[in-house]
Write a structure and sequence with these properties.
The protein is mainly alpha-helical and 143 residues long. The protein is built from 4 helices and 3 strands; from the N terminus they run αααββαβ. It is elongated, with a radius of gyration of 33 Å. The N and C termini lie far apart (99 Å).
């Protein structure tokens, strides 16, 4: 009897099927897609499921911001009053190109962001409190 190596036929060009470049490309694409799908099943889906479970648990335990008692959405801490705005934006928040209306020295060091100004105004418009009392386009201006 011969060894096990003698029983295995040699592999060579005559033993492989002849594939065109198109067939080879299609085969490689299929293999790559199958491997990608395996990776999704093994890693990404369990991670997404765990993240969803954690998010549901966090909501269940009261993490995050709870809605107000009257059913309206709760107002973020930053936009509740000018003192809170000044903790992050020392001289206030204003629209781009806004000018302070004052008889004294105008404030020019406010943070210029039309987007943030509109957010601040939207929260305060709902409850009748106005962070921009002189309507000059700068909320909570302060020197």
């Amino acid at each position: 009897m011969g060894s096990a190596a003698a029983l295995v036929p040699p592999i060579g060009p005559d033993r492989l099927p002849a594939l065109s470049y198109r067939q080879l490309g299609a085969t490689m694409s299929r293999v790559v897609n199958e491997e990608r799908d395996k990776m999704k099943r093994r890693f990404i889906r369990p991670i997404a499921a765990a993240a969803t479970a954690i998010g549901i648990a966090a909501v269940g335990f009261g993490a995050g911001q709870a809605p107000a008692a009257n059913g309206e959405a709760a107002m973020p801490y930053l936009w509740q009053n000018c003192t809170n705005v000044h903790t992050k934006y020392r001289h206030g928040v204003g629209k781009v190109g806004a000018h302070d209306r004052t008889s004294g020295t105008p404030v020019t060091t406010f943070y210029s962001s039309t987007r943030l100004y509109n957010i601040a105004m939207s929260y305060n418009r709902e409850r009748g409190y106005n962070l921009d009392r002189d309507h000059d386009g700068i909320a909570c201006e302060k020197r």
